[in-house]
Write a structure and sequence with these properties.
Radius of gyration: 28 Å
Strand order of the largest sheet: 6-7-9-8-10-11-14-15
Helix content: 40-55%
Strand content: 5-15%
Shape: elongated
Distance between the termini: 63 Å
Length: 579
């Protein structure tokens, strides 16, 4: 499948692994829960890539990555609508509903809603069958639900299309012991606008879409040709075109791909609406916006004392925009006005143009914001690699920045220091960015989709739970709720900042240590003793050549020290402020 690239050659083992990765790409695109399988296989590829192969540029592999990302774009924000019963979550392509057979439909999947025009709570009489058929169905459901009758097939006739419909009635076991049955139709539903999706994704013609539709209904080629009024050889020729466009090699492989896409289409429209964190301890903060000189929108929010000493809080790649409630109250009591700019591509802030320099562009956005707010002097709290934005801002406006506190630093690539991380996720992102920017984009997007489907908590444990200190911090309900709510600008009800996250990682990977050499303001670094991404010893070695930089270590802390040790962070930040 893959040809040798012009500039380099891959080891045979890596090339074989890449070929097998293609199947996992689509598996993850259709079910982000398979991300762990892809990660394991991808790590195996990275382990055998020769240095000459970096960055990895396989046109075929990159094409598959881009296509898989288009599939991910169509995955919904939630796995199923809230009204869907757990028993129906795995039934997508065919209409299915639950009932006790007495009065109403207790739950139904999206396919049943589309095919039968029903919704949870609808009476059985709402089903599109003749009245006598509904009576028969109701009686059968009651008998099967009570185990007085074996699972049964019924042949009814649709009052909408006049076509026969085969229904399978099976008992189910519910946690509340109420007798119910599941009713499943044997006919798969063709989701609304699914033909347009196939045309957009694969470039199929309308005639080819109709052939694919016939295949999903289980029709042989001869029947499809007869229904379309075409010769069998014509339809076979069109089938070869379809397989070429979809890069499948057999009819079963084509059907697996199409049915997987059908699952996505049937999930469309189910959107999670995330509320405030449990307990509602965080005060709601309104998002404000301004129009930047180039016409883009930039959002920001703030907390603390409106008349206090300004602090710019740069939220890092994970978008941590909130402090613990006690920390936000302390900021107000200690006379700090904390302004949180929402970086381009996060929340509803418009992304920077693709051709622009991310570091310079982000710093210019910060200049526009402080000018809008009338801030003439401020300190900067920068998380992770956002330190480079703070340093660039101080270079653009030498009189503006009074000092910088960098917490939980992401070390720039400076020889061995870039491999100092003991955190698997961080190392994987760095290695993937060096090997394949396209693969990094896929990996980050799949992780974001998985977080939105399964909830952010498991994703946050993956990102921040690598040290015992952080794992212990995450057991605190208030800290966990703050982290979940505070990262909504990265992954939240409004969308995902995976594109901006990926771009930032690639930008930071180019190296920015030279900015520290030019620093003319005090730069303090604060790291947890148990930080797995940037261990204190590595930070100390990194900071040693730069006179303006002074590193500090917090015993018993990890990456989440801004939340877990906020008192210490405030104590380090206040001397740097312009108060």
């Amino acid at each position: 499948m893959f040809e040798q690239a012009e500039d380099h050659s891959l080891a045979d083992e890596a090339s074989d692994a890449l070929t097998s990765l293609v199947h996992l790409l689509y598996a993850v695109a259709l079910d982000p829960g398979r991300l762990g399988d892809f990660v394991a296989a991808w790590e195996a590829v990275l382990a055998v890539l020769p240095p000459a192969a970096l960055p990895l540029r396989h046109p075929d592999f990159e094409r598959h990555l881009r296509r898989a990302r288009r599939f991910l774009d169509r995955l919904p924000a939630a796995a199923a609508p809230p009204s869907t019963s757990p028993e129906l979550c795995g039934v997508l392509r065919v209409p299915a509903f639950l009932s006790d057979g007495i009065m109403r439909i207790s739950a139904c999947n999206r396919a049943a809603g589309s095919a039968f025009g029903i919704a949870p709570g609808a009476p059985l009489a709402a089903l599109p069958f003749e009245a006598a058929d509904v009576v028969t169905l109701s009686s059968t459901i009651r008998m099967v639900a009570r185990r007085a009758q074996r699972p049964t097939n019924l042949r009814l006739r649709s009052s909408i299309t006049g076509a026969p419909v085969i229904l399978r009635v099976c008992p189910i076991d519910r946690h509340d012991a109420r007798p119910q049955a599941m009713v499943i139709s044997t006919d798969p539903v063709w989701p609304e606008d699914f033909g347009a999706l196939l045309q957009e994704t694969f470039g199929l013609t309308p005639a080819e879409v109709e052939i694919v539709r016939g295949l999903t209904l289980g029709l042989p080629i001869r029947d499809i040709a007869e229904l379309r009024g075409r010769a069998v050889d014509t339809v076979r020729t069109q089938m070869r075109s379809i397989q070429s466009k979809t890069e499948t090699h057999s009819q079963p492989e084509l059907l697996r791909l199409v049915l997987g896409l059908m699952d996505i289409a049937l999930h469309e429209g189910a959107r999670a609406t995330a509320g405030s964190p449990a307990g509602g301890a965080l005060d709601p903060l309104p998002m404000r916006s301004l129009v930047l000189p180039d016409g883009r929108r930039m959002e920001w929010t703030e907390f603390g004392d409106p008349a206090g000493a300004p602090i710019l809080h740069l939220h890092g790649d994970y978008g941590l925009a909130r402090w613990l409630p006690a920390a936000e109250r302390a900021a107000r009591l200690r006379g700090l006005r904390v302004v949180v700019p929402v970086r381009a591509g996060y929340g509803r802030s418009h992304p920077l143009p693709e051709a622009s320099d991310l570091t310079q562009g982000t710093a210019l956005d910060l200049v526009a914001l402080v000018d809008q707010l009338g801030i003439s002097r401020c300190a900067v709290l920068a998380l992770g690699a956002d330190l480079r934005f703070a340093l660039t801002l101080s270079g653009l406006r030498p009189r503006l920045v009074s000092g910088i506190l960098g917490c939980a630093l992401d070390l720039p690539p400076t020889g061995a220091e870039c491999d100092a991380s003991r955190d698997r996720w961080s190392r994987l992102l760095a290695a993937t960015g060096r090997a394949s920017p396209e693969a990094l984009g896929f990996l980050v997007q799949a992780a974001a989709v998985q977080a939105r489907l399964r909830g952010k908590e498991s994703a946050l444990r993956l990102m921040f739970g690598a040290s015992p200190a952080d794992a212990a911090a995450l057991r605190g309900a208030e800290l966990r709720a703050t982290l979940i709510a505070g990262t909504d600008i990265c992954i939240g009800p409004g969308g995902s900042a995976h594109e901006a996250f990926t771009r930032s990682r690639l930008d930071a990977g180019q190296g920015w240590a030279g900015l520290l050499r030019q620093a003319r303001v005090p730069v303090r670094l604060l790291h947890g003793e148990e930080d797995p991404v940037a261990p204190p010893q590595a930070v100390a070695r990194f900071a040693a050549p730069f006179p303006a930089v002074r590193p500090g270590t917090l015993p018993g802390a990890g990456r989440l020290l801004v939340l877990s040790d906020w008192q210490e962070v405030l104590d380090r930040l206040i001397p740097l402020s312009a108060r």
